[in-house]
């Protein structure tokens, strides 16, 4: 590091300081700033982003202390084709991940990182995923040259001084997470609003518990505590230590008698996890409270039950489709401000808007690309993967249990995806192994949350396809082993739901949103053994009479269609599942082949 490099801090923790020095020597920033996570720091970071033109400050009467941001149009989503699991052994990445030998990847990326922060500030962000007060706090240090990442990480994770002190005092292990948008600034060179690089790499080194990211500042690619750590790296930690890192919301459900249950639900990105996590039940007397909307860390408690914690501190929700009639609690959360909105549209009075926020669009907007927009425009005003980034503490339905480092004991786990056909509204697994089979064969139509085609049916096991940090066959084995190594009778029941099934005319068979509370009620009624389900070839499916339809605007015929098991449609799934399983070779647990054989035989019978 050159002598004129200035830094705001030097750590007493030698391992940490030498890593920071090493990164600075490679990336060559002009200054180094250690984040403290204070309110003053938020002001100076956001001021700096406003000055750079990256942020526009929103009208304080509409959205206090909030900012609008438009990314480079080529940096709007996760880049799954540029995401790598660089395990030592290629086999450990499995057939569903991109792989490169760690040394080869490090060579490529070291060349990219060389001088990549020239003319820029290098930020050091100490963070913890989960609670600082937990028995074993899960630390990370993100180094980044992006002030946008600093602002977003301040919302999404617990960061700053307290975290750093604890890391230093206990000389704790932490996940080193290096990020650069890859746009060095020569002296006198004008900056752009959203620096990024055409070359992108999102890389996990599972054995070293280390993350390297280059070229993108989009959420899932750059906020490294989120998908890279809390899912990809944490899934490996969980495999090694008997716990689970899952792409699941966590909610608390209270019935009219005051009985409390907890449900986790794994749906792929942009399939309604945030909506379900803060749903307003349409059935009288039932209450849903929010614990998490995206990630659940699940451990076995002293009583043998599975306990789930949300390791995040904010919400990074899909904006379009979020409105007062679809997710009023998300609207109430963002209304309080302190938020960053990326790739949405700007109103003329300094507020934000997106498709689905209100029935009537404003007469004029500036769209996410900076162009004039009117209701006559043929393009959408907001990118389909535009996001709100907002503190979870502002959510009016946040459950007190959110602050419990021990988490909540799960009564049920739901899996779900977007499927126009085949998958009934709700199906219950016969046992944990069958539930693992359901998760392992989960399928969904692709969404705008990742680059690439939208609407293509793909297998997305446990909604974790882009986030499993090791061989997916071994990951299924880990699910099976969780029950084998513990008392399965204490485990949650598993269900497979599909809110998106259509009729012959393409209309949705189920209204979704608030009405999904009826399915939550059914799930809990099953947990308590209060209602009937019938055996079908694919699992236990309710008769329409087991669903509370009081006040529901759906005919019995339509509900029966939503719940029907179409043997012919299922028969066409079989070869697809077969092909999906075959690629795993001997890492696929044999019991999943047994499940498939059983399914086949029951469909033929
Ligand atoms: O960008 S994120 O990966 O955080 C959101 C998602 O795709 O789930
Ligand atoms: Mn997600």
From TrEMBL:
The protein's annotated pathway: Carbohydrate biosynthesis; gluconeogenesis
UniProt keyword list: Cytoplasm, Decarboxylase, Gluconeogenesis, GTP-binding, Lyase, Manganese, Metal-binding, Nucleotide-binding
Domain Phosphoenolpyruvate carboxykinase GTP-utilising N-terminal positions: 19-239
Listed SUPFAM superfamilies: PEP carboxykinase N-terminal domain, PEP carboxykinase-like
Residues that coordinate or bind substrate: 78, 218-220, 269, 385-387
Leader sequence residues: none
Protein name: Phosphoenolpyruvate carboxykinase [GTP]
Organism this protein belongs to: Aeromicrobium panaciterrae
Lineage: Bacteria, Bacillati, Actinomycetota, Actinomycetes, Propionibacteriales
């Amino acid at each position: 590091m050159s002598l004129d490099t200035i830094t705001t801090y030097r750590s007493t923790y030698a391992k940490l300081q030498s890593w920071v020095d090493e990164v600075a020597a490679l990336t060559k920033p002009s200054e180094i700033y250690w984040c403290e996570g204070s309110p003053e720091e938020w002001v100076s970071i956001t001021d700096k982003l406003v000055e750079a033109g990256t942020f526009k400050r929103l009208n304080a009467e509409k959205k206090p202390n909030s900012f609008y941001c438009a990314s480079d149009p080529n940096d709007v989503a996760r880049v799954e084709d540029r995401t790598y699991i660089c395990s030592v052994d290629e086999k450990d990445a499995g057939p569903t991940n991109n792989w490169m030998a760690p040394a080869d990847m490090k060579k490529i990326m070291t060349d990219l990182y060389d001088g990549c922060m020239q003319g820029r500030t290098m930020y050091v962000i100490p963070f913890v995923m989960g609670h600082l007060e937990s028995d074993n706090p899960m630390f990370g240090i993100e180094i980044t040259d992006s002030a946008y990442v600093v602002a977003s990480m301040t919302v999404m994770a617990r960061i700053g001084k307290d975290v750093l002190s604890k890391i230093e005092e206990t000389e704790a292990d932490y996940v080193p997470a290096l990020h650069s948008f890859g746009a060095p600034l020569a002296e006198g060179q004008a900056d752009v609003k959203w620096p990024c690089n055409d070359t992108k790499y999102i890389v996990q080194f599972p054995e070293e518990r280390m993350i390297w990211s280059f070229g993108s500042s989009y959420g899932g690619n750059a906020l490294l505590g989120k998908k890279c750590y809390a899912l990809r790296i944490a899934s490996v930690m969980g495999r090694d230590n008997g716990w689970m890192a899952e792409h699941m919301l966590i909610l608390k459900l209270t019935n009219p008698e005051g009985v409390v249950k907890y449900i986790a639900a794994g749906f792929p990105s942009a399939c309604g996890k945030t909506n379900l996590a803060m749903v307003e039940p349409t059935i009288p007397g039932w209450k849903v409270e929010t614990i998490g909307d995206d990630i659940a860390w699940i451990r076995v408690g002293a009583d043998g039950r599975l306990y789930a914690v949300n390791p995040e501190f904010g919400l990074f929700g899909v904006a379009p489709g979020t409105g007062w009639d679809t997710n009023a609690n998300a609207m109430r959360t963002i209304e309080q401000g302190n938020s960053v909105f990326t790739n949405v549209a700007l109103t003329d009075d300094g507020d934000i808007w997106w498709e689905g926020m209100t029935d009537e669009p404003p007469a004029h907007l500036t769209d996410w690309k900076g162009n004039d927009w009117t209701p006559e425009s043929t393009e959408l005003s907001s990118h389909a993967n535009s996001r709100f980034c907002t503190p979870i503490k502002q959510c009016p339905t946040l459950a007190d249990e959110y602050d419990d480092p021990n988490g909540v004991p799960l009564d049920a786990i739901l899996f779900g995806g977007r499927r126009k056909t085949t998958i009934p509204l709700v199906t219950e697994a016969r046992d944990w192994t069958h539930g693992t089979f359901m998760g392992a064969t989960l399928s969904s139509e692709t969404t705008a949350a990742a680059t690439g085609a939208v609407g293509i049916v793909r297998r997305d096991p446990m909604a974790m396809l882009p986030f499993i940090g090791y061989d997916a066959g071994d990951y299924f084995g880990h699910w099976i082993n969780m029950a084998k190594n513990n008392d399965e009778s204490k485990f949650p029941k598993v269900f497979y739901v599909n809110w998106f099934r259509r009729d012959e005319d393409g209309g949705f068979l189920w209204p979704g949103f608030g009405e999904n509370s009826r399915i939550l009620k059914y799930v809990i009624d099953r947990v308590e053994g209060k209602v009937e389900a019938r055996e079908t070839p694919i699992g236990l499916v309710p008769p329409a009479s087991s669903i509370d339809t009081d006040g529901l605007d759906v005919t019995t015929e339509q509900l029966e269609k939503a719940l029907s098991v179409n043997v012919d449609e299922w028969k066409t799934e079989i070869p697809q599942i077969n092909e999906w399983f075959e690629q795993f070779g001997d890492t696929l647990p044999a019991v999943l082949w047994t499940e498939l054989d059983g399914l086949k035989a029951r469909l033929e019978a």
